[in-house]
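Note to self: the last two entries modelled the partners one at a time, which told us nothing about the interface. This time every component goes in together.
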Amino acid sequence: MKMSDSISSDEVKHVANLARLRLTSEELEIFTEQLGAVLDHAKDVEALKLDDVEPMSHPLPIENTMREDIPSPMLKPSDFLSEAPVVEGGRFLVPKILGEES
Amino acid sequence: MNQVIFKDNWELIVGLEVHVELATQTKLFCGCLNQFGNEPNTNVCPVCLGLPGSLPVVNQKAVYFAMRLGRALHCSVNRSVFARKNYFYPDMPKDYQITQYDLPTNLEGYLELPSGKTIGIERAHIEEDTGKTTHIGTSGRISGADYSLVDYNRAGIPLIEIVSKPEIRTIEQAKSYVSELRSIILALEISDAKMEEGSIRVDANVSVREVGENNLRTRCEIKNVNSLKSLGRAINYEANRHISLYGNGESPRQETRHWDESAGRTRTGRSKEDAEDYRYFTEPDLVPLNPSEETITKIDQEMPELPSKRRKDLANLTGAKSSDVALLVERNHDAFIFDVIEGGGVPEQVVKHMVNNLSAGLGELSTEAFAQLTQMENKSEITSTQAKKILGELVKSGGTPAELATELGFEAIGTKEIENLVDQLINDHSDEWERFCLGDSKVQGFFVGQVMKSTSGQADGKVINQILNERSIDNK
Amino acid sequence: MSGMVPEQYQSASEIAELVATGEVSAIEILERYLNQIQEYEKDVHAFNLVTINEARAVAQETDKLIARGVTIGPLAGVPVAIKDNLCTKGITTTASSKILESWKPPYDATVVKKLKEAGATIVGKTNLDEFAMGSSTENSAFGPTRNPHDISCVPGGSSGGSAAAVAAGFVPIAIGSDTGGSIRQPAALCGVVGVKPTYGGVSRYGLLAFASSLDQVGPFATSVKDAAIVHEVIGGYDPLDSTSIKQAPESFLDMFDKGINELKVGVISELMGGIDGVTHEVIEQTNKAVSALSNAGAIVEEVSLPAALYCLSAYYLIAPAEASSNLSRYDGVRYGLRVEGANLNEMNVNTRTEGFGDEVKRRIMLGTYALSAGYYDAYYGKALKVRRLLAENFADLYKDYDVLLSPTSPCTAFKLGAKVNDPMMMYVNDVCTIPSNLVGHPAISIPFGSGKDGMPIGVQILAPPMKEPVMYQVAHALEKASQ
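The predicted structure of the combined assembly is written out below.
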């Protein structure tokens, strides 16, 4: 399969970083090729005149769906803490956070 | 243009981003309680825990509050769309924050400072709060922490973020902007607006430029400012940091910095390489908000009088000093004061009691009773100490001041009686009297004290002073 | 053909009636289906989990209530299988992902709640492509599902487990989700009926999101009528889903037997050879369906849906973009898999790298790229505009036509492993089904004959939003013609 110029392996690496994924060098090569193929295909859209077209984020024109400010039942900690990987004193424990402050 | 010089030839440029927690009963996207101080992870449900499959539904009250604030800040209220701001952080249960991006609810308004200056408002949008991360370790700071613990009780609490234009030019204006915004919020009853509890959080975008320069230079965003005082200190520190960097031929780098109150300095903050690529896109789980003309008209009709107007009116009516006026408006007591004065209350006494003796609330106090009380006091039928006591009774259980005065035995000591006492004192203490007449004000207290002593404190201090002054003039 | 596909299916409506009248007990019905599962599940692997004990308890409870004279809902005693991306309270819900391998939700999806209220007996959770990303059910962390018509073939996907379960006679009804064809394509490949409802017609609350603006929950059944009955049970406004339609739908069954005389049907030419990849035998079979409708009195004409040519491109930007955000929450903090690391970031990366399969990673990265600052306008922004064009195309056609028709899948069931290594080739499987998702319209796939290999072929009826009654009306006519 030919390499696409739609996306470089550096860009794939960057995107994997943003998405909190690690790729082996083999995976990086394969994913770059595969993502390139999809993005190449997506280029067919360039044939369309789209300047005056309004983007459509929602399939149906529903607006103003809201709820009243009324309390509803909450979960008991035992309902969800048992599913948590690590808990301490009713709170979720995460490893130390780097790069926040110097 | 009147330019304000910050230091040497430098001008200060500040824009503020103020986050306000809304006082709704429930969270922004679920029916969990919007409450402070509960056990960790007890005010949560699948939605605000970000459990797979859960979906947000927006709280109508929060939207109403946001539009109300928007109108109070003279913004246009628009069709708005929620967006996702994507970044990984454990205090965000979905690892994205639901906020508004290119189509916020409120756009383009202004806020008028008590000084009369207006500061432009760029936008005021709705977003959800994050959970709370506590860093565990010897230092208590994130950098020295061994691990962190996350509580999602705060996750999903409704916020409005009000973004000012970079039109603030002094530290005083910055503080005044925040306190004015606070009083508007209190007047609208949309938040308890307590800065020290975090229900108002202020981030300051600070830069400097040389006087006469038109472009804006690199700004830094200062977070973690917990009081008006530290806001002033943080801006001052940061502006000086920029000036000295420029003085050394260097430039500040655009970044987020944290204010360290104890060290009195800002520190560089989050510097993740991907921090800026939030990949905003329309939140597909929510639909656009599109308020009708009638909705906006109704909000305008329900708009209470705003603090700036109320302060002006109250100052005109009472002639009170501006800090008292601001306080009384903040306490929402101005309408009551208007009624009291209209019913014959004496402005000076009314303001005095409102500021000093009624901070805990008005209780059973009626406007008529209060008006009568100030008249009695003004006519010296009772002393100010007695008035305060009677006022306390009126607040507690109502009634009329005249009856209470009789009941409490506050028969006013007549002026004639006080005159006799004063004359007697002048005779008995001629040395002191000479010194008083020569202008030694220290002995005034002696005379007043003596009269009080012989009347068991029932005499009116004002009347005593008045008589002393009359006698001293006669003496000359 | 293997012997596991029953000669004849018993309909859900018949079961419900037998159970409600006490003629057959719910437990008896259940045991019959459990026997079929016992016999063939090892070959098909339709289920991630069969909840035998819970199902027996429910069936016994149903029988007790009936004995006491309590009226049960329209699905009394009907065994139902649930796609494993719908939350079931206290029952493992995995999305066929390692990252959620043992997650037990503390709540039921709205759809599950409604099925229970209607008297259904939930028998288990069905296999899918991980997080519903795929068209073959090969992207499951727990192994592929096989097509009951030929176990060397895929059942389609992503709801392959649900489709196969119905086809194999494991259950009369199964629930799936359809983001780009994930109900209709496996229904076609397995020879059963599958429906994607109008977007907002069925609550998404409790559906593990893949692409929120495209996802819809819908039924699999062995007849159009059963599908309509189940659709009515699971549909309707849900205050927990902001995108739920408030307006009550018209009855899906009122027009059911009215015939299709004078109804206007448009055949989408772009999906009948206009786009590469739709096989000759599928086109041929679809043409037979066209003739059948015409014979039944419908006015059938060829129509053009020009934007259909660009749907695949738009879909494979929009769906991954939304997915990249929806799947961020699987970070090892609150639930599911956690692979430790020296710090938070490492833990996040380790968890996600180990927890997600390749296809999911591919789509997360694609979507992250499409949304990122420099490329948003070029990719995601354009895709949203194509979506608008498509909606306008459809609106124009529905001025003149009651429903539209096309093949469901461009080909019959393919062999396991045939397409797994070429994502683009796999994505083409969705070419006929994607348009309905992009615009939020309803569509149904009905089995209509088979290909040279003896594998089922499905025909798709598309209708305007909230026009399910006419969709079912035409589908029912086609079903009759195929028998």
